[in-house]
Design brief:
alpha/beta
């Protein structure tokens, strides 16, 4: 196996405000581009599984197969195991893993999936090469990542432009690439993947409930998560500036005409048989 490589720091951490978003994610709202390719018998690797909600959905969709969820953070895997156990799933397991050096033999999985992962890794091309390596011939590599610079919102509340500029600087200082969505196809081709289908999809937050949820989690994340600590410790922002950004989020969330769209890039790559 190649040596593990870790040149990026996970920007968000696993504060409650982060997991509030992660536990909302489902296969339907976060992996729809993949679902038509699934078969009941498939063996799936879900990389960066976090609290396991997408993982559990995938396990339900392959009742005669098996899903392994992996993450760099051991602590969040306990929540993932609880998620699977609470849904009575017997065809799923979880383990700690590094996407740059997966501890699995060549040609192991029918599908290797990663949602919102490559934006946080130090070497996304190497990560895709590893995903390709452990995929069976004829199987699928499926990746979806947000693109922060392509996020858009209304109305133009003062402070949200500041949020985007600050987030992108912190993420890049941590070794990641927050505009990963637009780069997925290029990274896949650089990794030697062929038969690459590139698509996009969005999350939209526009109702009162959606605005309250989305603005609230970012307002809290800006002040209380690992991202906040790294912003201050890295010299990117003062606590006063973070408070202003947090309040800008709450201001936007109170706007009846508020609308926010998150663009995602997606790639579905079939490994040559």
């Amino acid at each position: 196996m190649p040596e593990a490589q870790e040149t990026a720091v996970y920007t968000h951490g696993h504060h409650e405000s982060v997991l509030r978003s992660h536990t909302w994610r489902t296969a339907a709202n976060s992996a729809a581009y993949l679902l038509g390719s699934l078969k009941p018998h498939m063996k799936i690797l879900d990389i960066g599984c976090g609290p396991g909600t997408i993982t559990a959905d995938l396990a339900e969709l392959v009742p005669d197969g098996h899903v392994t969820g992996v993450d760099r953070a051991p602590g969040v895997l306990e929540q993932a195991r609880a998620t699977a156990a609470g849904r009575g799933l017997a065809n799923v397991d979880f383990a700690v893993a590094d996407i740059h050096a997966l501890d699995y033999p060549d040609d192991t999985f029918c599908v290797v999936h990663a949602h919102q992962v490559l934006q946080h890794v130090g070497d996304p091309v190497r990560a895709l090469s590893e995903m390709h390596r452990v995929t069976k011939p004829g199987g699928f590599i499926a990746v979806r990542d947000a693109d922060y610079a392509a996020m858009t919102w209304y109305p133009p509340v003062p402070g949200l432009d500041d949020w985007l500029d600050l987030y992108e600087r912190v993420a890049r200082a941590n070794g990641g690439e927050p505009d990963a969505g637009r780069r997925l196809k290029a990274w896949a081709l650089a990794a030697g993947l062929t038969d690459v289908t590139a698509t996009t999809n969005t999350w939209t937050f526009a109702t009162a409930e959606e605005r309250a949820w989305w603005s609230g989690l970012w307002a809290d994340r800006t002040l209380a998560s690992a991202y906040a600590d790294r912003a201050v410790q890295g010299g990117h922002a003062t606590l006063e500036r973070l408070r202003a950004v947090s309040e800008a989020w709450r201001d936007w969330g109170r706007r009846e005409d508020g609308w926010f769209a998150v663009l995602h890039g997606e790639i579905l790559c079939r490994k040559e048989a």
